[in-house]
Amino acid sequence: MSSFPITVHAINLPKRIDRKSNLIGQFLDKEEFSLRIVEPTSDPNAAKSLWNTIRNIIRKNLENDFVIICEDDHIFTQHYSARILQSSIGQAVNLNADLLLGGISWCKNAISINSNLFWVDKFSGLQFVVLFRKVYSKVLTVDFQDHDCADYKLSGLAKNKFVIYPFISIQKDYGYSDVTYKNNEKRRVEKLFENCSSSFAFLLKVEKYYKEFNGAMISEPNYNAISIPTYIINLPERTERLEHIKKEFAGRKEFDLTIVEACRHKIGAVGLWQSIRKIISLAIENNDDVIIICEDDHVFTEHYSKNTFIQNIIEAHTQGVDMLIGGVADAKYILPITEKRFWVGSFWSTQFIVLYRNIFSHIINEPYNDEITADGKLSESVVNKMVLFPFISTQKEFGYSDISAYYNNQRASNPPHKKFQDSFRKFELIKKIYQKHRNQLNTF
Question: 76 - beta bridge partners?
Fold first, then answer.
């Protein structure tokens, strides 16, 4: 890392005197920085103005290994120290980082690399960012469109993006934004940073929980005697779906099939949730310890193996898992726990789920209304949930959905199989990043 003081390029419109005063106050007692106020490039599009200003800063500092840029609403948190910043930059260099963020207001996925550094994918929040030399050329040459945002653009350009945690920087809420107009709502910005920070803290707790949980790895005995209660949701008139799903399970004696007539509701998603509740009530009556709920468009992938599947059901149970998911069309906050099981914060698609007895009553007692979606409610109400990876389940394309009118409208441009393929690639990327970056830090 460069020796102190480090130049910080702080972007400020001359008319924003209150913001300039805030900036000067933030850096006044920090001898490790040399503050340079930068007037933004003029452009009627505020996002373009910010982006072009970042470009100009980089052009004037091409010889430097990194530049620190901050916006005039940046605030240091109580977690900031020169030592933490220096250590984090050093770790980021070892991780071949493109950029390092002092704090963010949102991200789609995050992975803890260690207790004070997270990798993130798409993010928002550029109020304090360290840009490393390896990303300079991308920023200078990429085409920035009128609809682009600087933070999202950097998300796409940079592969190795890291955030210091606990956040050392957040945004001061002025009640307005010169760049992101939806942030004009009072306290919106503060809430976004609070929620994102809370999500990071929760991810660390989840990881710690599963590390400390005394879950035994199970060797593969003979599972031929095991048959799991499997409830298939089907509308009687959907005979083509019933025929399909019976073929999927044909010859698979590890599944004890029961066809359950789907509950009817004018809103398909509500009908699905009522069907899930109906099945859980049956499972309670039957004294089932573990069940599989399956929609009639489920398809086994080439990754399905009876012994591996049953082994994962048993091992997940020893880890306190309440729900195991065969495959998802998307997920937020993906955390590798074992080689084949990933914890997720929220997920989309319920075509194949395993539920354990401990969660039955909890799901039955969950309140719901006509806005419910099954994956949304399960994401929200079940904390200990994991996805099997590689996915063992995907969805067959029938050209329509009984659940979602939205997906019926989107099927031509984004069919189910494509969503699952994209999701598979995301899980694959998360797994590689998790293994790569943790190994990198361990070698230093």
Answer: 169
Paired strand residues for 334: 344
- Residue 129 tokens read as 């960012």
User: Residues 154-169: pLDDT tens digits?
Assistant: 999 999 999 999 999 9
What are phi and psi for residue 365, nearest 5 degrees? Answer: -85, 0
What is the Cα gyration radius of the chain? 25
Using the structure block, give the residue that is written with the tokens 């910043």.
Answer: 85
Q: Which tokens go with 85? A: 């910043």
The Cα 266–Cα 289 span in angstroms is 32
User: Which segments within 55-179 are labelled E, that is strand?
Assistant: 66-71, 74-76, 99-101, 106-107, 110-114, 117-120, 123-124, 128-132, 161-164, 169-171
Element at 378 (helix H, strand E): helix 374-381
Which residue type is seen at 274?
Answer: Q
Six-digit token string for 65: 């290994």
Nearest CA among 393, 263, 260, 277 for reference residue 324: 393
Q: Are 164 and 139 in contact (CB under 8 A)?
A: no
What three-state secondary structure class fits 232? strand
Residue 226: Cβ within 10 Å count: 16
Residue 179 neighbours by CB under 8 Å, 6+ apart: 46, 47, 50, 149, 150
The runs of H, that is alpha helices, within 213-347 are 239-249, 268-285, 306-318
Residue 279's alpha-carbon distances to 230, 298, 355, 384, in angstroms, are 10, 17, 11, 20
**Reported pTM:** 0.88
Cβ-contact 289, 356 below 8 angstroms: yes
Helices H / strands E in the chain, number of each = 13, 22
pLDDT digits (tens, 9 = 90+) for 322-358: 999 999 999 999 999 999 999 999 999 999 999 999 9
Residues whose CB is less than 8 angstroms from the CB of residue 219 and which lie 6 or more positions away in sequence, other chains included: none
First and final C-alpha spacing in the chain: 15
* pLDDT of residue 219 exceeding 90: no
Q: How far apart are CA 37 and CA 157, in angstroms?
A: 26
Read off the tokens for 227.
Answer: 């048959």
Measured in degrees and rounded to the nearest 5, phi and psi for residue 70 equal: -135, 155
Question: pLDDT tens digits, residue range 34-63?
Answer: 999 999 999 999 999 999 999 999 999 999
Encoded tokens for 216: 């035994």
Query: Is residue 335 within 8 Å of 203, Cβ to Cβ?
Result: yes
